[in-house]
Structure formats: structure tokens, C-alpha cells
């Protein structure tokens, strides 16, 4: 059963209410264009590097404006709304980088907490330590929807192919990768990683991204994308600014890709042995 998917590109700021209003406007635009599944980027609700200010704006799930808006939009429009992620306050003082998928009557069908924390030091002096504030998730999920089997990831998760392979083996036909990729890493790796995850698993990839220069000073790469199981980019956005991109997704294309290259079936278990090199120039037997 084919369906129209949309990826919403945003430039979220420090005000959750303003971001919620932008999300609502763009989701409605996507629905008007025929989308029945709409995905927003990572950290839809707020990008705020000032930790004190971010903590002040944080809410738990039951009081979060992005969660409320996502549910209301899904019910109003009768579609599936996937909030790529937003920051949710937890009882232990930590934060969850949590995605939500809302069904057509506004119900929460799935929650996914980002598993891999972005703890990196980049060449231009950028340094990020998500683990200092965020509690990583520990559970991957594949959700059965009327139109497809869907797997979930968030941003940095895309660098861990084992997550995607496990979901593909479990039956996922569409992988979701909402993100707020930095400009530096995005220029080097964004499209390559997304297309690789699609090709090696024979699945569609939908990746809504943050884009441009944000109020808190960070710069994100944009280029939201929808990719087919053969690695073809079906739709893409630019490097900055808001956008709504759409593509038709037919799960039959997943089966066709698997029939051509059945690498999920052909995979084999193997062991790894470390071999010491012979200092004389040969290799140990």
C-alpha cells in the first residue's frame, strides 16, 4: 500500500511556543499537499545551548507544547504526525531526546528515545556532550502501520548501522532519521550515511532536518531527504530555511530491492581473530 510521506525542514529557535506554531503551519501545508505521514526534525521544540535557559523551558511529556501540538494536528488532519524529537524533562533531572508518532485520532503510537549520544570534538572547535544532560534510550522499535513497517532513529544514530540492520531484519520497510546535523559533519557525511543505510538494508529513509543559523548560535546542515531502497534521492530540501518535501513511498519497492540483492538473508555469523604480524615482514601462519 503506497502512501505520501513528507519531511518538514525547520530552523527551530529558543521559544517552544513559536516553534510549535511553525511546526503546525508546515504540517498543515504538507497535509494540504497530500501527505498522510509527516515527519518533523530532531529537537523540533527548542534548540538552546544555554543550559539554564533550556532547563527553565523544559516540560515533562504531559505538559509539553510540542507533544500537545503533534497530537492535535494528527487528530485535526486525520494523518500520522511524527515529531522527530523534542526535549522532555525526566524525573531524575535528566532529559530525553524523544520522538513521538501520533495516529490519526491523536493517540501516541510510539515513543523513541535517541540511543546514541553525540559526544564529539570537531576540527573547528565545536564540542558536544549530549550525555552530560541527556539520558540515552536503550530500546529500538519497529512499528506496524497500515501502510508500512517503520523503524526509528534520531540524528547521530545514523552512524551506527547495526541499529538499522536489526530493524531491517525485524521487518522495517521505512527508516526514519530526523536530525539536527551540524553544518560541518553534514557537509562531509549526511547524504552518504542516509543513502548507505537505505542501500545496505533495502529500505526507504525519511530524514527531516534542522537547517540554517539558529538563535542559539549553532548552524545546522539542512538538506532534508527522502531516499528509496536503491539509494535514489526522491526529494530533498536546500541548506537553509523552512521546507516541505514529499515523495510517494511504495513498500513493494522494498521487496523488489530485497529480491534483487537479498543481503539480509545472505548475511552470515562470523568470528574475528587478531593476527600478529611477523616483524621480519611475513604474516604469522
Secondary structure blueprint with pairings:
Elements: E1 3-9, H1 16-32, E2 37-39, H2 51-57, H3 65-77, E3 80-89, E4 95-102, E5 108-113, E6 119-121, E7 127-129, E8 142-144, E9 149-152, H4 161-169, E10 174-176, H5 183-201, E11 204-207, E12 211-213, E13 219-221, E14 225-227, E15 233-236, E16 243-249, H6 252-260, H7 263-266
Parallel strand pairs: 1-2, 2-3, 9-10, 10-11
Antiparallel strand pairs: 1-16, 3-4, 4-5, 6-7, 8-9, 11-14, 12-13, 14-15
Helix pairs in contact: 1-3
Brief overview:
With 285 residues, the chain is an alpha/beta fold.
Written description of the protein model:
The radius of gyration is 19 Å and the shape is globular. It has a single domain (3-266), classed as Carbon-nitrogen hydrolase (Nitrilase/N-carbamoyl-D-aminoacid amidohydrolase, 4-Layer Sandwich). A hairpin with a 5-residue loop joins β6 (119-121) and β7. It is an alpha/beta fold and 285 residues long. Strands 5-4-3-2-1-16 form a 6-stranded mixed beta sheet. The mean pLDDT is 93. α1 (16-32) packs parallel to α3 (65-77). The chain is built from 7 helices and 16 strands.
Averaged pLDDT: 93
How would you describe the shape? globular
Number of domains: 1
Following the backbone from N to C, one meets helices and strands in this order, namely: EHEHHEEEEEEEHEHEEEEEEHH
Briefly note the CATH topology name. Nitrilase/N-carbamoyl-D-aminoacid amidohydrolase
- Number of discrete helical segments: 7
